[in-house]
Amino acid sequence: LCQFITWNIHSDFSFTNFRYQAILKTLQKLLPDIICLQEVTFDFLNLLLNEIWLQENNYYIIIMGNILDHNQKQSYGQLMLTKNFHARAFSICPLYLSEDSSSIIQQEAKKYIIARFELHSEVTIDLINLHLNDVDEKRCQTLEYFFKTMNMQNYMLIGDFNFGDNHIKEQHILQKYQFQIHDLWKDIYDIEE
């Protein structure tokens, strides 16, 4: 059994200290095997790295470089923590809107973390921590592009998708790829409840 948690910790300045402390206490209480965070700032990263529970529980960390560049306007990004095991390989990749990689829009694309883990000698799984755009059209384009281009057998998308069960366009995309993907959210949470 492997326990996952994903959390957009929000990079805004509303109740930052209170919110960050509450997030850290929750993570300490749960001590999940895999933690995927979005909108992580340099300040939060410093707090996290000073946590005793993080050090005592042998967490490995993958950090996006823009988190460390705290002089930039949007100096936040994703990070991934894994307890007692480390990635076989990882990369920070642009999250494109379409297959036209030469367009100017692509150069400003968001990024995601992809990390490959060995399940046993011949089987791997790629965990992908992403934060989709909050603009509907861009989010749909990115999701569509992602499903078209992912050519791995075992992967898990984790993160802030910026849509829910009532977002029709996104649900149509999930429906279109229903035989290629499995939406765990729908297994765990009943929209009718």
TrEMBL record:
Keywords: DNA damage, DNA repair, Hydrolase, Magnesium, Metal-binding, Nuclease, Nucleus. GO terms for biological process: double-strand break repair. Residues 5-83 form the Endonuclease/exonuclease/phosphatase domain. Its main location: nucleus. One of its GO terms (cellular component) is cytoplasm. GO terms for molecular function: 5'-tyrosyl-DNA phosphodiesterase activity; metal ion binding; nuclease activity; single-stranded DNA binding. The keyword Nuclease applies. InterPro entries: Endo/exonu/phosph_ase_sf, Endo/exonuclease/phosphatase, TDP2-like. Its cofactor is Mg(2+); Mn(2+). It is found in: Nucleus, PML body. This is Endonuclease/exonuclease/phosphatase domain-containing protein. The lineage of its organism: Eukaryota, Metazoa, Spiralia, Gnathifera, Rotifera.
